[in-house]
Design goal:
This protein is an all-alpha fold. It folds into two domains: 2-36; 39-115, no CATH class. Helices cover 72% and strands 0% of the residues. The chain has five helices and no strands. It has helices spanning 2-21, 26-37, 42-65, 76-89, 103-115. α3 packs across α5. The protein binds heme C.
């Protein structure tokens, strides 16, 4: 009985070592996360920049109307035609005089829309 217990115990240690060596090391874990949060794809980078504009120049106001109807990285592609219409064709957005987009921000949005 005692021999069996020792064998199981040693086997457990062996498995732990194996798991640790084969990809449970923290450095690999953080490496994986940073790879995901900093996309290297230039299209994604542009989208990120466009999202920053939507977040700081559009969501700040839309949030007051309806907190559930704000632009996010997930829904911005879906809303792209509306954004294009409101910002570039009808020029209704950003609404009012307080919030303005710089020429650079217009260009970033335009570049992002052209990648879709
Ligand atoms: C100062 C407030 C304010 C800012 C800033 C603002 N919006 Fe709006 N937006 C509104 C309001 C209010 C509505 C809903 C009523 C309307 O359509 O005028 C709206 C509606 C919209 C709609 C829906 C229009 C439709 O056809 O139903 C889109 C798309 C939109 N905004 C895009 C933008 C974008 C893109 C920006 C940033 C570049 C922006 N808005 C900035 C106030 C704002």
């Amino acid at each position: 009985m005692k021999k069996v217990t020792v064998t199981i115990f040693l086997f457990g240690i062996l498995i732990s070592c194996f798991m640790f060596l084969s990809g449970f090391s923290p450095s690999e874990l953080t490496g994986e996360i940073s790879k995901k949060s900093i996309p290297t794809d230039p299209g994604n980078e542009l989208k990120q920049q466009a999202f920053e504009i939507l977040k700081t120049k559009c969501n700040v106001c839309h949030r007051k109307q309806n907190p559930f109807k704000i632009f996010s990285l997930r829904n911005m592609n879906k809303h792209a035609p509306k954004i294009k219409e409101q910002v570039f064709i009808k020029k209704r957005m950003p609404k009012g005089d307080k919030i303005r987009l710089t020429a650079e921000e217009y260009q970033t949005l335009k570049n992002w829309l052209s990648t879709l």
